[in-house]
Amino acid sequence: MSMETTLHHDAESGKLLIPRRKVGITGYGAYVPRYRLPGGEIARIWGGDPDGLPVAEKAVAGLDEDVITMSIEAARNALKRAEISPAQLRAVWVGSESHPYAVKPSGTVVAEAIGASGSVSAGDWEFACKAGTEAMVAAIGMVGSGMGDYAMAIGMDTAQGKPGDALEYTAASGGAAYIIGPRQGSLAGIEAVYSFVTDTPDFWRRQHAIYPEHGQRFTGEPAYFNHVATAASTIMRETELKPTDFAFAVFHQPNEKFPRRVAKQLGFKDEQIETGMLSPIIGNTYSGAAIIGLTAVLDIAKAGDLILMTSYGSGAGSDAFVLKVNRALEERRGKARSTREYIANRVEIDYATYLRYRGEIVTG
Amino acid sequence: MTAYPEVVIVGIGQEPVGEHWDTSLRELAGRALRSAMKDAGGLQPQAVYVGSMLAASASHQANLGALVCEAAGLAGKAEGVTAEVAEASSAAALNLAWQAVRSGMTDVAAVVGVEKVTDVVGAGQELSLLGASLDADYESSEGLTPTGQAALLLQRYLYENQFPREVLRGFAMIARNNAVNNPNAMFRRELSASAYNRAAPAAAPLNAFDIAAHADGSAALILTRADLVPRNLAHKPIRVLSSSLIAGRLAVHDRRDPLFFEAAAVSVRQACLKANLPLANVDFFEYSDSTTLQALLSLEAAGFAPRGQAWKLAMDDSLTLKGSLPVATMGGHMGRGFPLGASGVYQAAEACLQLRGEAGANQITHAHYGMIQSLAGTGAAAVTHLLAG
Questions:
Q1: Which listed site, A26, B69, B281, B347, has its alpha carbon 20 to 30 Å from A233?
Q2: Closest CA to B88 of B328, B237, B327, B286
Q3: Which residue of B has its CA nearest to A201?
Q4: A252 annotated active-site
Q5: SS3 of A360, please?
Q6: A204 touches chain B (CB under 8 A)
Q7: Is residue A105 part of a domain?
Q8: Where residue A252 sits, what CATH number does that domain have?
Q9: CA-CA distances (angstroms) from residue B194 to B166, B169, B186, B198, B324?
Q10: Which of A65, A99, A252, A256 is flagged as catalytic?
C-alpha cells in the first residue's frame, strides 16, 4: 500500500489523529527501579494461591524514589538517544496516577532537573493507565502543529494496590519517557494515532482516597477488551494494515493474561508480542505499562519494522499508535541503558521490606 | 385427577447465560419471552409469571410483571406477577403457571426467569445479596453465604462418609463436558481431571470447579392446555405431568439431619405420586448443582442413591449422557452457568429439548420422562417437575 496516500486521505476525513507535519520519536528512555517483590511473597502473607499468580514479580520503587525521580531517570535516557539539547524542548508532560502532589506539578520539577529552559509547557496528565500515551498524543499535536520542534511525554507510576487486594500482586513501579520531534531525523516515524474512549467506570480512585477501587470482572470484557480491541482494530482498518504487517505489537498489560488474550483475539502471534511483554517480570506499571513495553521493542527493532502499540486507561479508553522504525534507531539506541538492562538489575525484597519502602508501616 | 386438563409446554426461549454487561434486565427478559412466544407458534399468554431472586436488590427493580410484559409487547394485555423462592424463583413461577392453566382459569401462561447479577460489582455487596436465600437471623447475619455453607456441609459429608475427595470431580466434569455442545452455556470447554485437581480451593473443600458461576440470563416458557396446542406447532408439545413445591426448614441447624434435603425428598415423592410415575421411570435428572454438595444431596434426597453414597455415582459413567441416569444434560448450573432465580426455567427448557429430541449432540436415547428440580437456599425449599415427551 502507499501509506502516504492513505494517511493523507484519512487525515482529511477519517477517525485517525494525524498531524499536518510529519512527526516521529526522536528519543526514548525507560526506567525500572531495582527492587522486585515476588508474587509468592504476597500469596504467603495473604493466603493466596502461589500457583495462580497474575505475574511472577513486580518492580518496587525504593525509599528515595517517586514518580518525579523516576521520570527524571527516564527523561535523561530519552535525551541521550535524542541527541538534542534539553533547551530545545517546548513541553515536559508527565502522565501518572501517582504524582507525589495532588496540587503542584511533577512536570516543573522534571523540566528543571533535566535542564530544560524555563520556556516550556510543563504539566501533569491524568487518565488512569493511559495518562502517558495521552501526553504522547498531545506532544504529537504540539510538534505536528509547529508550536514547537520537540516535546517530551512521560508515563510513570509507583502504583498502589491496597494490601490484600488482588491489585497488590501487579501494581508496580516504572515507566518511560518519549521525545516527539520532526519525523526527519527521528528514530521511528509516527504513522498514525487513534484514540477511542467511552464512559466506562471500571476502576477509579476518588479524591482523598489512598487506594483505587475496581469493578472486579467488569474490568475485563466491557472495559479492557472492548477498548483495546476497538482501538487496535480501528487503527489497522483505517491504515489498511493487518496483524501480519507488524513486526511487534504492544498492548497495555495489567497482568499477563489480558494482553495475551487480546493479541490472540486480534490475530497476533506470540512472537510479535513477546518482546514487549514485561508485566510477568515487572508487574503493571500503570501509566508506564504499554510505553515501557514499547521501549523494550525499540531496543531491538530493525529499520523498516512496523510496530503497533495500544494503551488502555480505565474510565475508559485506548490510544493506538502505528510506528515505523528508521535507521537512526539502530545507530542511537545504544546511547542509553536498555529496558532489559534495567530489568536485569534486580534486588529481591520480602513483603516487610516492601511495606517499608511503600510507606505502609504506621510508625506512630 | 382426570378432572384436570393436561398442561403442555409449547414454547421455549433461552438467552445465552453469561456476563451481559451491556444488556438490561428488561432486554434480557423481553428477548427470552419473545423467542418463547415465537417458538410456541405465536401464542400470546394471558398471564406472565416471572421468577427472579435478585431483581429487587441487585437491579433495584421490583414490579417485574409490568417490566417484562411491556418488554415483550404485552403491556395491557396480560396478568403479570413475580414469584420469589430465592434460587428456585422461576421454578416456583412455573408451578404457578402450571396451576393457572391446569385449573382452567388461564388458557395460555408464560413463565420467565430472569437474573442480572452483573448489575452489582464489589465483594461486600455481592455477599450481602447472595446471603438472602439463607436465614437472615441466624445464618447470613453470621457471614454465611450459600457457598460457604455448602463448603461446611461438604466437610461434614466427607468426614462422615470417608472417601477420597477427588472422586467428586466427576460432577464438575460431567457438567462442563455436557455444556460444550450447549450454545447457551457459559463454559464451553471440556474440563480435564488434571485441571480440576490443580484448581485451588475456593471455599475448602470446594474448588472453583465445584461452584457454579453466578451469571446473567433469562429463559421463558409458554404453557397451555393440550387441547389448545396450535395446529402449526413445529415441534412436539411437552407434557408437564406434575409440579411440587415444598418449603422446608430455612436454617440448616433446625433440620434433624443437616446432610439430608428433606424438602427435596418430599417434593420428589409428591411429584412422582401426582404424576403416577415411579422414580425408576425417570430417564434423566436436571438437578440443582449450584455446588457439588447440592449435586450429592439432591441425588440422595430424590432416592437415586442411599444417604451418604451419591459420591459413588461419580466414579463410573452412571451420570453421563450414556449412563443410567444422565444429569445436567446441557451443562447444569456448573457448565451452563448459574443465573440464580432464572435457572429453573433453563432446566425446563433444556428438558424440553431432550424430550422433543432436539438436544443435538447431547441427545440422550429413550428420553421419555425427565425430572427437573430447583433448590432454594441450602435445600430449604425445593420445586420438582416431571415432564414427558
A1: A26
A2: B286
A3: B121
A4: yes
A5: coil
A6: no
A7: yes
A8: 3.40.47.10
A9: 10, 10, 21, 6, 26
A10: A252
Q: Provide the number of structural domains found in chain A.
A: 2
Place of cell 427493580: B61
CA distance A294 to B362: 48
Instruction: Return d(Cα A145, Cα A303) in angstroms, integer.
Output: 26
Angle at A305 between CA A300 and CA A307, to 5 degrees: 85
Instruction: Please determine, for residue A262, whether its predicted confidence score (pLDDT) is greater than 50.
Output: yes
- B189-216 pLDDT per residue, tens: 999 999 999 998 899 999 999 999 999 9
User: Is A97 annotated in the active site?
Assistant: yes
In a domain, A12, yes or no: no
Domain contains A119 = yes
Closest-approach residue (CA) in chain A for B126 = A216
Å from B200 to nearest chain A CA? 7
Instruction: Say what the pLDDT of residue A5 is.
Output: 44
In a domain, A14, yes or no: no
> What number is the average pLDDT over the span A234-241?
97
Domains and CATH numbers, chain B: 7-121+213-388 (3.40.47.10)
d(CA A90, CA A182): 13
Residue pLDDT, tens place only, A194-234:
999 999 999 999 888 888 888 888 899 999 999 999 999 99
Query: Chain A partners of B21 at a C-beta cutoff of 8 Å?
Result: 218, 221-222
Residue of A73, A97, A238, A256 marked active site: A97
Size of interface A-B (CB pairs under 8 A): 20
B122 contacts in chain A (CB < 8 Å): 213, 215-216
Are A351 and A259 in a shared domain?
no
**A129 given a catalytic annotation:** yes
Are residues A181 and A50 located together in one domain of the fold?
A: yes
The arithmetic mean of pLDDT across residues B80-90, rounded, is 97
Question: Which chain A residues are within 8 Å of B198, Cβ to Cβ?
Answer: 51
CB contact under 8 A, B21 and A216: no
User: Whole domain around residue A33: which residue ranges?
Assistant: 20-187+337-357
Q: Please give the ipTM for the structure prediction.
A: 0.71
Is there a single domain that holds both residue A118 and residue A39?
yes
